Amino acid sequence: MILYACSKNPGKLREFALATREFAPQVTIDCLPGLEGIPAPEENGSTFEENASLKALYYSRFTPELVFADDSGLEVDALGGAPGIYSARYAGPDAIDTANNELLLEHLQDEKNRKARFLCVIALAKADRILETFRGAVEGHLLTARVGSNGFGYDPLFYYPPLGRTFAELSPEKKFSVSHRGKALRKLFEALSRDAT
Ligand code: IMP
């Protein structure tokens, strides 16, 4: 079964490839053909669900196959849930990961409550119709400096107590086994195998 991913984020694409290898070898996840040349839709939803769904619907018009889009981000309690759906562009429209990390550290200076969670919503669509959405979350807390060099985004700041490491210190397999994206993708794979039987 072929499933087209509507993302240009190399960090996410690596995790999608790992996911199929580990959990759903019968599924092939590929980047939507021609994605580079398709103008991205405006992510103007107010929730992860809305943004994932609008992306999946939009891209489903370019192929008759199943497509999925993921919208994800970091919610920080002390910041009232920010950066949330704005995680990718926290420090500006084309912000790189280190700029986002630095701004987050600046906003959390002297803050004692460092509780945060990663969230991921995956929307599955076909031919201009949303079939289902899947949500995953993982709780952790934010360090005062970056640790580790794996992963992407806010991984070096996100300390995961059950493993005593930041996400950037975990192997891709280990991160995937506990992450928000791993949880959402496993729910997607379960739904696909349920529907195939
Ligand atoms: P999206 O492309 O709008 O879903 O952007 C998600 C943004 O949230 C990413 O660019 C990262 O900044 C952050 N993010 C989402 N998932 C992760 C993760 O697994 N690790 C680190 N940062 C993440």
How does the SSE layout of this entry go?
Elements: E1 2-5, H1 10-23, E2 28-31, H2 48-60, E3 66-76, H3 97-107, E4 115-126, E5 129-142, E6 158-160, E7 165-166, H4 172-178, H5 180-196
Parallel strand pairs: 1-2, 1-3
Antiparallel strand pairs: 3-4, 4-5, 5-6, 6-7
How would you characterize the overall build of this protein?
There is one protein chain. This protein is α/β, with parallel strands linked by helices. 31% of the residues lie in helices and 25% in strands. The protein has one domain: Maf protein (Alpha-Beta Complex). The chain has helices at 10-23, 48-60, 97-107, 172-178, 180-196; strands at residues 2-5, 28-31, 66-76, 115-126, 129-142, 158-160, 165-166. Helix 1 packs across helix 5 (180-196) and helix 4 crosses helix 5. Bound molecules: inosinic acid (IMP). Inosinic acid (IMP) is lined by residues 9, 70-74, 87-88, 100, 118, 151-155, 167, 179, 181.
